[in-house]
Amino acid sequence: MPDLRGASPVQTALWKGYTKTGITIQYIGEKMDEGDILLTKEVEITPEDNTGTLMDKITDAGIESILQLLKTYDGKPFPSVPQAHDKATYCGKIKSEDRILDWSLKSEELHNRIRALYPDMIATTTFRDKRMNILKTKPSSLSLEINPTPGKLKRLDKKRLLTQCGDGRFLEILELQPENKNRMTASDFLNGFRIQEGETFG
After folding, report:
1. Which helix (H) or strand (E) holds 66?
2. Which one-letter DSSP state was computed for residue 200?
3. What is the pTM of this model?
4. How would you label 58-82 residue by residue, b for 16+ Cβ within 10 Å and e otherwise?
5. What CATH superfamily is the domain 96-193?
6. Which of 17, 80, 100, 146 is a good FRET partner for 38, with 20 to 30 A between their CA atoms?
7. Which residues is 126 bridged to in the sheet?
8. What residues contact 183, with CB distance under 8 A and at least 6 apart?
9. What is the pLDDT of residues 127-164, one digit of tens each?
């Protein structure tokens, strides 16, 4: 605190590409998330983290912090410091329409959105007029292309699936779930669907 006050601090930290976040133990204030601070603890965000893994880290940090705080309890109110309210930022609820991927965005933005939505809401696109859930991705180091076609699929090494994004870079799809099917790896998807030149997501 006071960064990311509101309903979706974990998801928003990932969505914005933060490399660290944290937990805050605070007194209850008159307004949400505005109470005086008793203790804070920083939590690292790795490029592989999603909301599920980051929530686990934050839960562990929260338990550790509460135990640390309780060890100092002497029967008196815990000392605290006011928040810097002028530095506050806010985050709202994640909406269902936020799940729909816009491949004209930058590859890093799309990667961050996908991991922010997983595993609670799941990012989605379309393929051959059916829903396709995108579960896990990573930015690709493949060379930048001029005049990109957002959503265009590219097969690499017969096992890797890449999608072109609006900045000309590619996003590698690691795991996905076609409509009415189980989740699968990119390799399994390529073997089963045999994508054609020029096919796209979205």
Report:
1. helix 51-70
2. B
3. 0.92
4. beebbeebeeeeeeeeeeeeeeeee
5. Formyl transferase, C-terminal domain (3.10.25.10)
6. 17
7. 131
8. 133, 135, 175, 176, 177
9. 999 999 999 999 998 877 788 999 999 999 889 999 99
